Each structure stands twice: as structure tokens, then as C-alpha cells.
Amino acid sequence: MKKVITYGTYDLFHWGHLRLLERAKELGDYLIVGLSTDEFNSLKNKNSVDSYEKRKQVLETLDLVDEIIPEENWEQKIEDVKTHQVDIFVMGDDWEGKFDYLNEYCEVIYLSRTEGISTTQIKKEMFD
Ligand code: C2G
């Protein structure tokens, strides 16, 4: 079984998120999402509209996603890859190069971001 992992906040789930997860799942048989906790979001200077629990519930409705683990810090990825015996690490290419250190432990693939949609843009439209 080929295991894929990706990480993110996945706030106000949208088409861009879905396309990323679809393409990530196509690379293997089992997809793990490291979902940023509310505490880690503040470390990322990213305040999500929805709580971790709500964001997790949305991802749990997707057959695409086989497992969700909390992303609590920047340092856990190597341990996660080892513990979960991950074969492929995937991120959107807004992170291109940032996680190349994981090449020692698994394949690292950056997928193109979906243009024209972002949580930031949705928040602006919701709250402006
Ligand atoms: N994404 C995308 N297209 C968009 C928006 C997001 O492909 N229009 C991708 C991002 O590249 C990322 C994933 O969807 O791979 C989740 O996006 P975010 O929730 O914004 O993730 P981020 O806050 O960048 O967290 O340790 C890594 C971080 O947790 C990544």
C-alpha cells in the first residue's frame, strides 16, 4: 500500500483544497492529512475561521482522506513520515522547495496550486 501525506489548515474548505487532495490521493492508495491545530495556526500567523474540530469534520466526510492527524509544529514531519511509513509527501507548490529535506525519508512532490481561489479571498468576501 502506497501511503501519501500532506499538511494544511484547510479552513473554509474549497475547490483548491479538494483538487490538491484528489491529486495527492491519485499518487497512492492511502492519504493522511496533517491538519493544523488552532494552536499551530497561530504559530503560522494564520487564524482560521473554523476550529480544528470543524475543519476535521469537513475532511472526515471525504472518502479521499483515509486518516487525519494533528499538525502541531513545524518539526513533526520527519517523525510522521517514519511513524506512518509514508511513501510520498505532497504539498501545493506555494511551498516549493520548503520541504525538500524530507527527500531523505520519502518522495517529495509539489503540486500546482489552483489559481483564483483562496481562503483569504473567501474571508474577504465574507467579512468585508
Ligand atoms: N492549495 C491549493 N490551491 C489553493 C489553495 C490551497 O492547491 N487555491 C493547497 C495548498 O498549497 C496546500 C493545501 O491546499 O497544499 C492546504 O492549503 P492551506 O490550508 O492554505 O495550507 P497552509 O496553511 O499552507 O499549511 O506544514 C504545512 C502547512 O501546514 C501548510
TrEMBL record:
<dbReference type="InterPro" id="IPR004821">
    <property type="entry name" value="Cyt_trans-like"/>
</dbReference>
<dbReference type="GO" id="GO:0047348">
    <property type="term" value="F:glycerol-3-phosphate cytidylyltransferase activity"/>
</dbReference>
<dbReference type="GO" id="GO:0005737">
    <property type="term" value="C:cytoplasm"/>
</dbReference>
<dbReference type="Pfam" id="PF01467">
    <property type="entry name" value="CTP_transf_like"/>
</dbReference>
<dbReference type="InterPro" id="IPR050385">
    <property type="entry name" value="Archaeal_FAD_synthase"/>
</dbReference>
<dbReference type="GO" id="GO:0046872">
    <property type="term" value="F:metal ion binding"/>
</dbReference>
<feature type="domain" description="Cytidyltransferase-like">
    <location>
        <begin position="5"/>
        <end position="124"/>
    </location>
</feature>
<protein>
    <recommendedName>
        <fullName>Glycerol-3-phosphate cytidylyltransferase</fullName>
        <ecNumber>2.7.7.39</ecNumber>
    </recommendedName>
</protein>
<dbReference type="InterPro" id="IPR006409">
    <property type="entry name" value="G3P_cytidylTrfase"/>
</dbReference>
<keyword id="KW-0808">Transferase</keyword>
<keyword id="KW-0548">Nucleotidyltransferase</keyword>
<dbReference type="InterPro" id="IPR014729">
    <property type="entry name" value="Rossmann-like_a/b/a_fold"/>
</dbReference>
<dbReference type="GO" id="GO:0019350">
    <property type="term" value="P:teichoic acid biosynthetic process"/>
</dbReference>
